[in-house]
Amino acid sequence: MRPAMSTDCTADWTDDLIEALLTHYVGGAWRAPLSTDMADVPGVGARLVLAGPADFARAGAAAAAALPGWAALGLAGRADALAGVARSGAPAGAPGLALIAAAALPATALAPAVTGRLLAGAAVLLLPDPAAPLPALGLIRALHRAALPAGVVALLHGTADAAARHLDLRPHDPDRNA
């Protein structure tokens, strides 16, 4: 007979999820937002905090600080750092800060898009789909456990248009940015 499954993991994930919706992942840690704008998460009965200009600036500064060391690792070093997080996806694009809007990707393409950019030497700013943030939050948890250098990956709740405007970036569109 199998032992009863503990609900501690579920409770921890629920608490983590609520906290993740109310914070941003920047510089290797979950941080309090610098904006107070909120949005509903449809079908979940929760709200999330939207990133504002100062949040985007903080994520951009963390990425800029992390990029030289991340790029210096080389492809083999970055692959070692990402081992176990993803098993597929090809490097794409040039080093820099890659903006990936999860709403533009199916959930199954999210990890390859993010890890492919990381393998190529880019820092990644991930914007979860506000209607379905769980895949992006789960991926960030896995990347955090991989102990990537602080600032190499960030998660902000916000729109691709706002991020592109505040960081002068173009969102990763798999149909346009091969």
UniProtKB/TrEMBL annotation:
InterPro entries: Ald_DH/histidinol_DH, Ald_DH_N, Aldehyde_DH_dom. Pfam families: Aldedh. Residues 105-167 form the Aldehyde dehydrogenase domain. SUPFAM superfamilies: ALDH-like. Keywords: Oxidoreductase. GO terms for molecular function: oxidoreductase activity. This is Aldehyde dehydrogenase domain-containing protein.
